[in-house]
Amino acid sequence: MKIGFVYSGQGAQYIGMGQDLAETFPAARKVFDLASNALNMDLTELCFKENDLLNETTYTQPAILTVSMAIDAVLAEAGIFPEAVGGLSLGEYTAFVKANVLDFYDAVSLVKQRGKFMTEAVPSGEGAMSAVLGLERETVEQVCLETSEYGIVAPANYNMPGQIAIAGKKEAVEAAGEKMLEKGAKRVVPLKVSGPFHTSLLKPAADQLEQVLKSVQINDPTIPVVSNTTAEWFKNKEDVRKLMVQQVQSPVYWEDAVKTMIQSGVDTFIEVGPGKTLSAFIKKIDRSVTTLNVEHQKSLDKTLKKLNEKKLPIH
């Protein structure tokens, strides 16, 4: 058995995420304390108590990173370690922390700034994203080209077979969505996001991130990390630094990245972080692999039981 960890992306957040684990496991609580110290704000309040900030990209990103690493700390205590890692968009930063590419303290501050840059890149209401269900990627790409007269619109997330998110200028995304339905899409679902992420409209955010990264220590990965942008393994710290900037304004090739992990021998995926979105994607990509998730005590117990049944060699 070869285990791969995959880390949640933006949109998976909910009030109360990680709370029972933080209250039960000191290792998880320590991660929240570190993040609170790094950002000079109480991350337990942000994640556990009703508030309006959690769904603001600037705060969503450090919150999900913190919860994911807190869960990861609990898994490490239980002797569960990955042999390869990846993460959806924001989740790639959690993978970087796990692979010692980034220090957690630095990463929490970095993703908060990344979220702020992404929010500010396109004025509110000008951009949009929609999920297109039931079309081949070639058709989605062609329709985006055909409707570009309305403004920038392009594939943003290749999530799984039959599900691709498109993003761009609001009018262009709406026009593309209508044409996708004409081409046979089962559904086109507008997404509740604050901007047209992973498109060229985010270049201002990428440029700002590039400047910030100049003062951030980046290390070579100590375990393999798969890239959202190329669906290949990061080679070294220079590769990481370059692709961190590209990732903000480039499509996320999640389906391809998962296939890269499977081709390397990963047969057991553990989704670490809030929600089960990535598990659902992976099941659609390849039903032959085992998919598990850990987001709270109940799912932790279930995952540990499954791994025990599979005779996992505990480290």
From TrEMBL:
GO annotation, biological process: fatty acid biosynthetic process
Catalytic reactions on record: holo-[ACP] + malonyl-CoA = malonyl-[ACP] + CoA
Keyword Acyltransferase included in the entry's annotation: yes
GO cellular component: cytosol
Any one GO MF annotation of this record: [acyl-carrier-protein] S-malonyltransferase activity
Active-site residues (renumbered): S89, H198
Keyword terms of this UniProt record: Acyltransferase, Transferase
Malonyl-CoA:ACP transacylase (MAT) domain: residues covered: 6-294
SUPFAM superfamilies (alphabetical): FabD/lysophospholipase-like (SSF52151), Probable ACP-binding domain of malonyl-CoA ACP transacylase (SSF55048)
EC number: 2.3.1.39
KW Glycosyltransferase (keyword) present: no
PANTHER family, alphabetized: MALONYL-COA-ACYL CARRIER PROTEIN TRANSACYLASE, MITOCHONDRIAL
Family recorded in the similarity comment: Belongs to the fabD family.
Protein's recorded name: Malonyl CoA-acyl carrier protein transacylase
Organism for this UniProt entry: Pisciglobus halotolerans
